[in-house]
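Reading a protein record of the kind used here takes only a little practice. These numbers are not coordinates but entries in a learned vocabulary of local backbone shapes. Here is one such record, which you should read through line by line.
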Amino acid sequence: MTGVLIVDDHPVILQGFRRVVEDAGVAMILEAADPVSGYRLFHRIRPQVAVVDLAFRGSGLAGLALIRRMRALEPRARILAFSMHRDPVVAARALEAGAIGYVFKDLPVGDFLAAFDAVRAGRPYLPHRLATQIASLGAASEPSRYDTLSAREIQVSILLREGRDYRFIADNLSIGYRSVVNTCASIRKKLGARTQAELLGMILAVEDLGSHG
């Protein structure tokens, strides 16, 4: 996979994005002004990173469906949701759809580049305050909940926080794939996370997971 695709219906945003990522050393930049064109480009080119706005004129939050289709087509897709929406519910829906990062359009360029670099490297990214808000959607993340995690569950949580998939975690910890699946299910139950998005928000909101357990 090569290049970066941005899907946004604001010409000024597209122009600014191109300038920023060119300065960051990206050579191939693809642009689409609507979800249909964005999906066609993604299907044909399979870019390394897709940056997707959530709201499109006349189509509501059509970006969520686009992210979901991209993820279904390419399970390894590295997708950054790029939005003016600060509602943690909307952000959680973007993560559930398949984005691994979420960043606000009005943040400084340096913050956007931090998010872009993280997602390009396959690591999750959420602004800290947003991560905390998403975590609170499912249940309050009291320190005592993290204290109930076993050493193995903390190891797995740290690797999840780094954006590692189940196969990588299994190989890294020298355990079976099914053991990773079961451990993640146990972590969600202990932390009270109903979904993977809530779990990711909880993990990213903790300053130092290694201090628990």
Notes: Residues 177-191 form the longest helix (15 residues). The chain has a mean pLDDT of 86. Residues 6 and 31 are 5 Å apart (CA to CA).
